[in-house]
Structure formats: structure tokens, C-alpha cells
Amino acid sequence: MLREFSANEESWKRFLGKMLEVLAVLTEVRVVHSDLKPDNILVTTDENSRFDSLKVIDFGSAFNYDGSGSLSTATPEYMPPEALSFLGKAGDHITQLKEVDHPWSFDIWSLGMIWLELISGFPLWMSLKCKVTSRGRTVTSKGLLAVQGRDSQLILREQRSVIGSLNEVVGRGVGLQIDTAGVDLLTQMLQWEPSNRISPVEALSHQYVRLST
Question: What is the pTM of this model?
């Protein structure tokens, strides 16, 4: 699982590049995974514990972007705000999503939230406070999007708060450290308006990823 992958920034850049390649392929065939989270990404490392390869699993919630129907149950903390607003409501969610987003908008947000989880050092959904010591700092915290009952509307509220202070959230994280180019790419992946989110192909050309190859 991805949570067992303790990467330095260079290994993370290689991992991110491979994930963006996966999303680019899914975009090309008009498929949305819709349940990207650490548990659904398997990674292997080389003999020096550096990133080697990955596999994305569990397409049980995936859908055809050109299709129709309701969203399958996914993991709310990694879902984008426009999809969270549909949870618990009947209707043709997929058609409604197409009115506001691109084929990659859902999954690129989820990948951004996975990245933010690694930066924070705590699983997004962790409701109990935990203590983490890193780089000489001891921090007690819970997940960035942890709310009582995993209520989608409360998660939406926390999402808005996190995105509104993204630089501060990244700065106080005790997990993965990223440079200013990384913050720029993360910001483009986590744009609140889905139509403004960077595409996988564009992200692969971003300085943060390109300089790692």
C-alpha cells in the first residue's frame, strides 16, 4: 500500500509522474477511477527503498465519463467537492458532473489529496489525535478532513478550509517535504472549480515532475 511507501521527494516525484501517466491513459479512454486513495495504489521499491513501480487497483467504482447514472460509493475524504455534494442524493450524477468538469477533474483532485495526506503525515480520515515525531518536531493532530460520522457536508466544509489555506497546511506538515514548484503543482491539482484543475498531460510537463526524469 502507498502508506507503507516512505519516500524522499525525488522518489515521490517519480511516483507522481507514473500516477499522472496512469491518469492520462484513463483520460484518453474516458474512464474515471473515482476511488483513488492510498489503499488502492500498490507500489514496489528497489533494493535501496526507492520507488520502482506501481499498480492502481479496485476499479469497482469506476465509470465511463460519457455514460450516465449515479456515483458508486467511494471514500469521501478523497472525493472532489462537486462529487461530494451528490452523496446521499438520487439522480444522474455522472451527467451532472460533465456539466462542470473534465474527464480528469475527479481523479486529479483525488491524487492531490493523497499527496496532501503524505505531506501532513496523518491519514485524511483519522479522527483520533495521533503523535508524530519528524525532523525534530513532535506534532499531535488528526486527519485534515476528519469529521464526526464522515458526514459529506462536514467534509466539504473542511475541504474549503484546507484549500483556502493550502500554503499554511503544507508548511506545517510533518510528512513529505516539497519545494515551491511542488506547491504550485499541488495548487493546480486542487483547484476548487473542477474545470480549472490541471490535466494529467499538463502536469507531466510541469517543472516539478519534469526535472525528476
Answer: 0.92
